[in-house]
Amino acid sequence: MKKTDLFIPLITILLVSCSPKKETLLYVGTYTENESEGIYTYQFDQETGELALKLVTPNKENPSFLTTSPDRKYLYAVSEVTESPGMDSGSVTAYRITASGALEKINQKATKGYHPCHVEVSPDGNFVVASNYSSGTLSFYRVDQDGGLSDSFQQIQHEGTGPDTIRQKQPHAHSALFDASGEWLVSADLGNDKLEFYQYNEATAQFQEAEKPFVAMEPGAGPRHFTFSPDGQFIYVMNELNSTVSVLKKQGEHFELQESVSALPAGFAGDSYGADIHLSADGRFVYSSNRGHNSIAVFGREPDGSIRLIETVSVEGEWPRNFALTPNGSFLLVANQHSNNVTVFRVDPQAGTLSYTGKSVDIPNPVCLQFLSR
């Protein structure tokens, strides 16, 4: 064998061993009425499931929902309040993510609505949209070159009510997501039992209703959060008020409701409210959280998009709000708001089932988990 034949594999080994290991950060959004100081940043080990606190970004305005830009350079956080300092509404804050993972504030802009509870960035990174729960409105921003936000250039007011005379007396915009192409913006409104569809009009530089402007959920369902299937042909909706997961299928250019399946085990008679929902990266499993029953529901997903409940697993805490699958899909972490902890579960890659690792970290009022792998 020639010396050069030995030299090439050695160089390859050295390059691999010297290449920097990918870092995985977990940003935790909280409610700050009690002991929370703001946004908590953890180092997460995707092989062991260990969490280590790195730092805390001070923010006492209920940074209850977080999202990162597609290029992983910026983080956006809502202030779920009626009045941010110097503003007569809630707000969204733009942060720069530094090399250390620390968050440097760029700017903060009013939503012109009350209690923004969700924020989303378009796939091209050009737009940010916030959902104002109490006002039932969506607020839109353009993203500047430095990652900061423009003033809100458009607000869309939802209309309508639902049969629940306490929770559905008015519209409550709860979340909004762009599809992978960026062509569609979809909003879930808990107050009017609708998924509302929008598209951006280049001529007017505004978002406008789609040709079919909404899909109605079951009366009293209270749609809260939703997610798209990897191929974009299905939408899975977590309904808060009746604790069901609804399946919408794309038919031509529109979506239609196919079925709604309970996220609770048969025979459960207590009070419970659906919260968050996510799909596994391979699209084989659907996960949703139950507040009250305090569980994660695991669904198997059939080739036709329909779902079947496999199991419900205790979250080892109380009031699971948001949860997140790790970037490599090996773990699922749950933010338990009332028990002030984040718990870690291992995911069986074949069965989709969850097993508690025994790992739990104490965080005051955790309500949102956002991973960043870089």
Low-confidence stretches: 10-17
Strand order in the sheet with the most strands: 3-2-1-28
Total number of strands: 28
State the order of secondary-structure elements, H for helix, E for strand: HEEEEEEEEEEEEEEEEEEEEEEEEEEEE
Family: Belongs to the cycloisomerase 2 family.
GO molecular function, one term: 6-phosphogluconolactonase activity
Protein name: 6-phosphogluconolactonase
Keywords: Carbohydrate metabolism, Glucose metabolism
Describe the structure.
GO terms for molecular function: 6-phosphogluconolactonase activity. Keywords: Carbohydrate metabolism, Glucose metabolism. InterPro entries: Cycloisomerase_2, Haem_d1_sf, Lactonase_7-beta_prop, WD40/YVTN_repeat-like_dom_sf. With 374 residues, the chain is mainly beta. The chain has one domain (31-373): Methylamine Dehydrogenase, Chain H (7 Propeller). It is 4% helix and 51% strand. It contains 1 helix and 28 strands. The strands form 7 sheets. It has a 4-stranded antiparallel β-sheet, with no helix packed on it. The longest helix is centred in the N-terminal third of the chain and has 16 residues, at 3-18. It is globular and about 50 Å long. The model is unreliable at 10-17 (pLDDT under 50).
